[in-house]
Amino acid sequence: MLLLDKPYNTHQLAQQLDLDYKAVQHHMKVLEKNNMVSKIGEKYGAIFYLSNFLELNINTLNEAIDKLDRKMNHKKIYM
After folding, report:
1. By the 8 A CB rule, do 17 and 24 touch?
2. What is the chain's pLDDT, residue by residue, as a tens digit (79 residues)?
3. Where exactly are the structural domains of the chain?
4. What is the CATH topology of the domain spanning 2-73?
């Protein structure tokens, strides 16, 4: 969701999310492979931004996130 506001490199994302650099690097590769983000540049200085595909389908992503959030926060009561 950070990429909605502006592009970031891996180091900036790791700092913003308070996550390990290598973990963010791995996940950005997965997101790029699945056409969710695009990048400009190579290696350490590569800047990531939302892909055109994701920008066009952001509402679908938001719906999926909301559905997952509801499912995770739903408490089952057994009688």
Report:
1. yes
2. 899 999 999 999 999 999 999 999 999 999 999 999 999 998 888 999 999 999 999 999 899 989 988 888 876 665 5
3. 2-73
4. Arc Repressor Mutant, subunit A (1.10.10)
